[in-house]
Specification:
single chain, mainly alpha, 6 helices
Length: 183
């Protein structure tokens, strides 16, 4: 039972790192885009390292034990590339107008760069507000969907191997701080 509490504690620690990043963003006087891009790059690098160095080889070992030597490697590779395909498919299915990865106009981003700038006034302000609320709801949903597998991986890894769980929890926490700043 103490392993469950340890795994749960690591998962909560990793998840709360998003709140640390959010607190950093709220305390900042203005947005530093250079810092944000470096932090996001660092965040991606940490997750890539953990994925390829820790999780990928643990997956090979577990799947080889379950399915045998040649089939375990194939299942691991198929899972890896299947996940990439699924992410690409999901990104292509999101309409361009609602995709948060689409660039904004200069007028829309000016208030982010200049403290005295105001948001552009449009005749359809109510429709804009509704779109903003919808985008916020989808962003919250996307973050929840994004964080669920991270928490699940941290929890299950800590139950299986506490040292691996600590490594994944630290990596996820280092990933979640810049993520919290960005959000």
């Amino acid at each position: 039972m103490s392993n469950v509490w340890f795994a749960l504690g690591l998962t909560v620690f990793a998840g709360m790192a998003t709140a640390i990043g959010s607190a950093i963003a709220f305390m900042a006087q203005r947005t530093n885009y250079r810092f944000l891009s470096v932090a996001t790059g660092f965040s991606a690098g940490v997750m890539l390292y953990v994925s390829f160095v820790e999780i990928f080889f643990k997956g090979v070992n577990a799947l080889t034990l379950r399915f045998g030597d040649p089939l375990g490697h194939w299942v691991n590779a198929a899972s890896f590339f299947g996940g990439m395909l699924l992410i690409g498919l999901i990104d292509n299915l999101i309409p361009a107008g609602e995709n948060p990865h689409e660039p904004h106009t200069e007028a829309e981003t000016r208030p982010l760069h200049e403290r005295t700038a105001t948001a552009p006034v449009t005749p359809a302000a109510a429709a804009h507000h509704a779109k903003l609320m919808r985008m916020g709801l989808f962003t919250a949903l996307a973050i929840g969907i994004h964080n669920f597998p991270e928490g699940l991986a941290t929890f299950l890894a800590a139950l299986q191997d506490p040292r691996l769980g600590v490594a994944i929890a630290i990596a996820v926490a280092l990933h979640n701080i810049p993520e919290g700043i960005s959000v």
